[in-house]
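User: Last request for today: this protein with cytidine-5'-monophosphate, please.
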Amino acid sequence: MEQRRILVAVTGGIAAYKIPELIRILRRAGACVRCAMTPAAQEFVSPLVLQTLTGHPVRTDLFDASQEGEIDHISLADWAELVILAPATANTLAKMSCGLADDLVSAVLLATRAPVLVAPAMNVNMWEHPATRSNMETLRQRGIRAIGPEVGELACGWEGAGRMSQPEAIAAEAGLLLGSRDLAGEVVLVSAGGTREPIDRVRFLGNRSSGKMGFAVAAEAALRGADVVLVAGPTPLATPAGVRRVDVQTALEMRDALLAEFERATITVMAAAVADFRAARPSELKIKKEDLAADSGLTLELTRNPDILAELCARKGDRLVIGFAAESHDLMASAQRKIARKGCDLLVANNISSETSGFDTDDNAVVFVWPDGQVEELPTLPKRDVAAQLLDRVAKARGGDE
Ligand code: C5P
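Assistant: Here's the final one, the structure of the complex with cytidine-5'-monophosphate:
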């Protein structure tokens, strides 16, 4: 952490009393630390304590001219290489998820482009409230890292999840986040989600892909310093922080969007479940059953969609291109054939026959298949961890090329 710039943003929870200890650990590790506090945080720990420990004036007010003169809130947001929000109250997490900026801490959180680590701490019922759950999910999708809360006895008298993680654990997580800028300088192009192929004005052919895997890759790549473009099929997922998103509907639109970005990309990850077929002649109007004979079915003629991955691989030069392969049976044999046929540098094969991994789930069980026949099987992991493992391999491969 030597000379790394960390902003510790403190909000109003009793766990704020542990922040001096967090600052001492970060400083001992060599980090330059500055602090920002909400008004409520100052009820629990004095700005003077944090100023003494950091060696810098502590920012508490968005509208104080003398504080803005010292370092204005945008400069503070830009200064930070990492922001630690600890303790993170339900209120500030909610503001973050909505993009509100009505005090110094929330304004800095909205303005910063640095990775953000949050250490929630609150009453167990507040933590388990659907509003907090959904805010946390939104933040996670945007690439915000969370540590804790831990389960135990809470200051309010309740037992359960809500205790802020220990300062040592927060500092260790901060160290990991600062350490992993191994994709800085790379342009990562990711496709995610399924496609919708219109049959008529209201109906389409789709698939069960949620987009979660591709979004996790995009979020992780951005956190590791890459310039990330995410080409996404229809999905309600929030755009990860620092990622440029291009929305598409059909396989042909996805192809156009990817081709437009591909030249610039140094790494392309095709996590999208692209429809292999589309309706040959989609109807401009809604197809009405009344227009068909009473007992007749409807025959739909399908035509093949281009294989985008194979097309990108054909023009890849020294770019890295990674494909995904969702298989319900014969996983390894199909994956080996597929990597040879498509010509990509790595194929991530996943078994979609299980209900707990694969399509529309939070976890994935994948096997990395390399062109030389090597395979690496990973245990079932959260998609974010699968993304991290994949990007570890990618960063290594890129490093090896240089
Ligand atoms: O051939 P299959 O669909 O199993 O291959 C999966 C891989 O190929 C994924 O990376 C997917 O994004 C990509 N793909 C594609 N264009 C298609 C179908 C799949 O790029 N038409």
